TrEMBL record:
Biological process per Gene Ontology, one example term: tRNA threonylcarbamoyladenosine modification
Keyword tRNA processing: yes
Gene3D superfamilies found in the cross-reference section: CGI121/TPRKB
Keyword Transferase: no
Compartments, as annotated in UniProt: Nucleus
UniProt name for this protein: Kinase binding protein CGI-121
Keywords: Nucleus, tRNA processing
InterPro entries reported in the protein's UniProt record: CGI121/TPRKB, CGI121/TPRKB_sf
GO cellular component, as recorded: cytosol; EKC/KEOPS complex; nucleus
Taxonomic placement: Eukaryota, Metazoa, Ecdysozoa, Nematoda, Chromadorea
Top-level taxon in the UniProt lineage: Eukaryota
Organism: Parastrongyloides trichosuri
Ranges annotated as biased composition (Basic and acidic residues): 1-20
């Protein structure tokens, strides 16, 4: 038995192709209730899917702000408030677009320090380098063009700028990154940058698993006993700070 057809008497205005603004009246065709119901269900599903995607984005951004990144306060000179800065840090693994990120850093699209995670023993060493970079910037003594680059340079025990940036900055084949952004207390900059990184943000507990001690031993010219020492971070931090005193 044929379904009863519904007649829609609504009239729609349609401009003539000549562009003269003449109005034609078009009567909509009779539509089956089944087709109307199907179209309604599909529209409802699309709307529901969009809401789910928006929810996941909000959840991810919120997690990036509070759970996976940390913000540290920096003030190398406790008597000089002008040196007070903050730095937000996040660790990424399984990064797939390192070459693209390197180009963004080169062109200035990214204002952040992208560091090889395997070469930083723990946050204490990173903060020692960050404090040095902020101190140098406050006294107009930076060896590089930006605070982010100065942080990477500060991690190195040598005064060779090119060598330091090549050793500690990301390069072809890098998969695990430490991302540092200065003056990002609210985390908005990190959230924005994380969308450009095709990798996985991880908790800081994962950081220690990424460290490659043979490379650290070679770069800092350490003894095997130093790697087993509880003072390993202090030994590295001393090299970071004292390199400005060596000529």
């Amino acid at each position: 038995m044929c379904q009863k057809k519904l007649k829609d008497n609504r009239m729609k205005k349609n401009k003539d192709r000549t562009g003269e603004g003449r109005t034609n009246f078009i009567y909509s065709e009779n539509v089956s209730p089944y087709l109307l119901s199907k179209e309604y269900n599909e529209s409802k599903k699309r709307k529901q899917l969009k809401n789910e995607i928006d929810f996941l984005k909000r959840k991810y951004n919120s997690r990036m702000k509070s759970g996976l990144s940390r913000v540290y306060e920096l003030q190398p000179d406790p008597y000089d408030a002008t040196q007070r800065r903050c730095m937000r840090v996040c660790v990424f693994t399984e990064v797939k677009n390192v070459n693209e990120l390197m180009e963004m850093v080169r062109t200035g699209e990214i204002d952040a320090a992208l560091i090889k995670a395997e070469l930083v023993v723990e946050p204490f060493v990173l903060l020692a380098a960050a404090n040095r970079a902020v101190h140098q910037a406050a006294h107009n003594r930076m060896s590089t063009r930006s605070l982010a680059a100065e942080l990477i340079y500060s991690l190195s025990p040598t005064r060779n700028i090119s060598e330091s940036l090549l050793n500690f900055g990301i390069s072809d084949g890098s998969e695990n990154l430490i991302v540092c952004i200065f003056d990002d207390a609210k985390g908005s900059k990190m959230v924005k940058l994380s969308k450009k990184i095709k990798g996985k943000p991880v908790k800081f507990d994962k950081w220690m698993e990424l460290v490659h001690y043979p490379s650290i031993k070679k770069l800092y010219n350490l003894k095997s006993s130093d790697l087993k020492s509880e003072d390993l971070c202090d030994i590295i931090a001393n090299q970071i700070v004292s390199k400005d005193l060596v000529y």
